[in-house]
Amino acid sequence: MTCHNCRTQMVKAGFYGAKKVQRWKCQQCNKRFSEPQPKPFGQDVRLPMEKVSMILRCLAEGNSVRSTSRLCDVEKRTVLNLLKTAGDACERFMERTLQNVPVKELQLDECWSYVLKKEGPKHPTEANDDSIGDPYIYIALSGESKLVLAWHLGKRDRENTFTFVEKVRSATADCKFDISTDAWPAYVSAIDLQLGDRANHGVVVKVYDKPEEGRERYSPAVSLLSKNQSEAGNPDLSRACTSHVERKNGSLRQWCRRLTRLTYAFSKKKENLRAALALHFWYYNFARIHGALRVTPAQEAQVSDHIWSFEELMSTL
Ligand SMILES: [Zn+2]
Questions:
Q1: Is the pLDDT of residue 18 over 90?
Q2: How far is the CA of 91 from the centre of ligand 1 (A)?
Q3: 265 near 255, Cβ under 8 Å?
Q4: In what order do the strands lie in the sheet with 199-208?
Q5: What is the CATH code for 49-316?
Q6: Model's pTM, two decimal places?
Q7: Domains of the chain, residue spans
């Protein structure tokens, strides 16, 4: 260690606190310094690693921001700041790690959510404001390993579908695979343009019954007919299915507090929703044992060789 003032070598001068942090003393100016400690995510986070890990664990396990702040005895603002830092880190980590992953079967779907208010009550002056209203969460799930290969947050339109399929392209390896989507028409051109060389595109069309009187809001409509049709390539239509990714939407609502329907929990800012989603998908892919697989989806897809912890995530980035 060198002194910050005199740039000379210092000598050891005992330990500080219960964690026995090494202290150093400069022999020229007699100033004492503590050895620098690793900071979570390499950023100016002033909480100890254990506390940060506990806060992130609470958020990832489906607690709200307020309940996390009560459980961990920190300010609400601290929880939100950490959520944003961790969300950015998770997004970077996933982009870097999930590249060229070989897949056999891919399922794509969108999940509705809203920020601040729904599209309906928006004021005419807010009509073009994309930061509020109804963004959709696009998810690409691998059918065999249950890994979420790519996700995207944005309006349900051509442009965002294109960006999402672009992300799917960079996440998947250059091999032939089957891709199943719902009947959202923007997928056809986006997949044809960007994944035409590797994907066989099958579309699952579901026709729903009219809900019974009085139960529209609480129960999903009964699916009457499910028809698979081929769009591009030569997909195995008997295997085309979006059931797993639709089940994943269900877990997403269960594990991400701000997506729970018919409650007071909802996002007020788009960047916080984005961070919460990044944290959830990282936790789901790398840190949580999948009930059916008995390992994490990342281990199943051979992207990672162990179960990740938040401490590890904080120190690798
Ligand atoms: Zn000095």
A1: no
A2: 41
A3: no
A4: 148-154, 136-142, 105-112, 177-181, 199-208, 223-232
A5: 3.30.420.10
A6: 0.89
A7: 1-37, 49-316
C-alpha span between 79 and 115 (Å, rounded): 19
Give the Cα separation of 101 and 8 in Å (integer): 50
User: At residue 297, what is the residue type?
Assistant: P
pLDDT at position 99, please? 93
CA of 26 to the centre of ligand 1 (A): 5
Spacing, Cα 43 to ligand 1 middle (Å): 26
Q: How far apart are the CA of 41 and the centre of ligand 1, in A?
A: 30
Confidence of residue 44 (pLDDT cuts 50, 70, 90): confident
On average, the pLDDT of the chain sits at 90
Q: What is the pLDDT of residue 211?
A: 66
pLDDT band at 214 (very low <50, low <70, confident <90, very high): low
**C-alpha 28 to ligand 1 mean position (Å):** 5
Q: What is the model's pLDDT at position 239?
A: 82
CA dist., res. 239 & res. 228, Å (int): 9
Distance CA 307, CA 71 (A): 25
* Cα gap 282→276, rounded to integer Å: 10
